[in-house]
Automatic annotation (TrEMBL):
Subunit structure: Monomer.
Keywords: DNA damage
UniProt lineage: Bacteria, Pseudomonadati, Pseudomonadota, Alphaproteobacteria, Hyphomicrobiales
The organism's place on the tree of life at top rank: Bacteria
Protein name: DNA-directed DNA polymerase
């Protein structure tokens, strides 16, 4: 079943302007002004302007009179469209093989079979919205069985993410306003005059009178929203994309036939990449069916490759997911992400140690589980929870190392947990402590090891310290505890105790 994600960027024009001019404060109201002849009106407004009562469509003169210090910028539709295109290309490389622009303020993606690479639909949507927010862009995203439903929900909800379970499209859209049907404003106004208020009201009305009065567009939009009529997504393609295609005079559908032509496309793609000195990092197989629908498969590699046999295997392992339907009329294979690849001769000396390449195993696991494969690398930081980071399986080492002068537990809690401690201040270790409801008596202890805050990163850590102790309880278990503060000056910390790790 198709799953479609609609991303709504409600303040794209103003967000684009703020990104281009960092000197603009987020508290400064900003509006985009459109004009036609002598008329000037607000075409877009940021959150600060909306809070002050400004609205899209309001005359520019009235807005300027209402709000002092209002920043007004002329509309630039071409720049807004270019920004939307760049975001769409970014989403193509990160989330799905089938991504298209949904102008003027949205992106649409078919994520069927691709959401597992992001950890599921929930993590995919929340991660997408968070990454856009990190780029200074406000966004809302919805996923449903159809483009029409996802588009409507993303633009009518106040939540950042909405997931409509499969098969529940009708229940999710029945109460949505008529404006969510992507109909012309004149048609929506006429329908409201006739007494229609929601999508459900319109869907329950006989089709013939509506078609007679408004033409086929109302019925078509309803059918698209409820999934009765297919609405294919024409995926965007970069200008420099390396892509090969195969069209068929007669539709194909047998698995062995699909596999044969996929192998040929992989060979052609590798030859094209070789001409350009590139290797593929992410490849998309697009299946065009005769019913005007498409299906996509995505395969990624941990490093640039141009190995025909290996790339063929990555797609062959997933060919059973292809549903040919009434037949396939075209296959396309594209290297969505390609990087320079320098061929290196492998060592043939009997003396040199042979290094086992685990990249093929990483590729298989990553294509099954997406972001679950990573390596742990050290970060130059004295604060324990900041001294580790997740990196890609084949990423280069950063050069940082963990300190070796003090013992570190093999298991570090993701977040220090508060504990109750009996201890003599300022420098004595705990006599006993209670953690997760269990009281433990300390038999041996070592410390304290004092760790200072990173004042150059956070002003709140200017004089903050932690005193760490390695303790062993009466059962032989060893723990890593710390006290926030030096035990004397309250400004150095709260003097509360925390559990931070366990030793083997």
């Amino acid at each position: 079943m198709a799953r479609v994600v609609s991303v709504f960027l409600p303040t794209l024009p103003t967000d684009r302007i703020r990104r281009a001019d960092p000197s603009l404060s987020s508290d400064t109201p900003l509006v985009v002004i459109a004009r036609s002849g002598s008329k000037r009106w607000i075409a877009a407004a940021d959150r600060a302007a909306l809070k002050l009562g400004l609205r899209v469509g309001m005359p520019a003169a009235k807005a300027q009179a209402l709000v002092q210090g209002l920043v007004m910028v002329d509309a630039d539709t071409a720049s807004d469209l270019a920004a939307l295109e760049r975001l769409t290309l970014w989403a193509l490389s990160q989330y799905s093989p089938v991504v298209a622009m949904d102008p003027p303020d949205g992106i649409v993606m078919d994520t069927e079979g691709a959401d597992h690479l992001q950890g599921g639909e929930d993590l995919m949507l929340s991660g997408l919205v968070n990454r856009l927010r990190g780029r200074g862009l406000a966004a809302r995203a919805a996923i449903a069985d159809t483009w029409g439903a996802a588009h409507a929900i993303a633009r009518t909800t106040s939540r950042e993410t909405v997931i409509v379970p499969g098969g529940e499209t009708a229940r999710a859209v029945n109460r949505l306003p008529l404006s969510s049907l992507r109909l012309p404003a004149e048609t929506v106004a006429s329908l409201r005059t006739l007494g229609f208020a929601t999508v459900g009201d319109l869907a329950a009305t006989p089709r013939a009178p509506l078609t007679l009065r408004f033409g086929p567009e109302v019925g078509r939009r309803l059918d698209q929203m409820f999934g009765r009529v297919a609405e294919p997504i024409d995926p965007i393609r970069p200008v420099d994309l390396v892509e090969v295609q195969k069209s068929f005079a007669e539709p194909i559908g047998a698995p062995e036939t699909i596999e044969k032509y996929v192998s040929r496309l992989v060979r052609q793609l590798c030859l094209e990449l070789e001409k350009r000195g590139l290797g593929v990092r992410r490849a998309d197989l697009i299946v065009h069916r005769v019913d005007n629908t498409i299906q996509a498969l995505r395969a990624g590699t941990a490093k640039p490759v141009r190995d025909i046999a290996w790339l063929t295997k990555l797609f062959r392992d997933r060919i059973e997911r292809i549903e040919p339907g009434f037949g396939i009329e075209k296959l396309s294979l594209a290297a969505v992400i390609a990087e320079p690849l320098i061929e290196a001769q492998s060592a043939s000396s009997l003396i040199e140690e042979q290094v086992t390449d685990v990249t093929p195993l990483i590729d298989v696991l990553c294509n099954r589980g997406g972001q679950r494969i990573f390596r742990v690398a050290p970060v130059a930081s004295d604060v324990p929870e900041r001294s580790v980071q997740r990196i890609a399986p084949t990423a280069d080492e950063g050069g940082a190392t963990w300190p070796l002068n003090w013992l570190r537990p093999p298991r570090l809690l993701g977040r220090p947990e508060p504990i109750e401690v009996i201890a003599l201040l300022p420098d004595h270790p705990p006599v006993s402590f209670t953690w997760r409801g269990k009281r433990r008596r300390v038999k041996r202890a070592d410390g304290p090891e004092r760790i200072f805050g990173e004042w150059w990163k956070r002003s709140s850590e200017w004089i903050a310290v932690r005193d760490y102790f390695v303790v062993e309880d009466d059962t032989g278990e060893r723990f890593w505890l710390f006290r926030a503060g030096d035990g004397v000056d309250a400004e150095t910390g709260s003097h509360k105790w925390f559990m931070h790790g366990m030793f083997a």
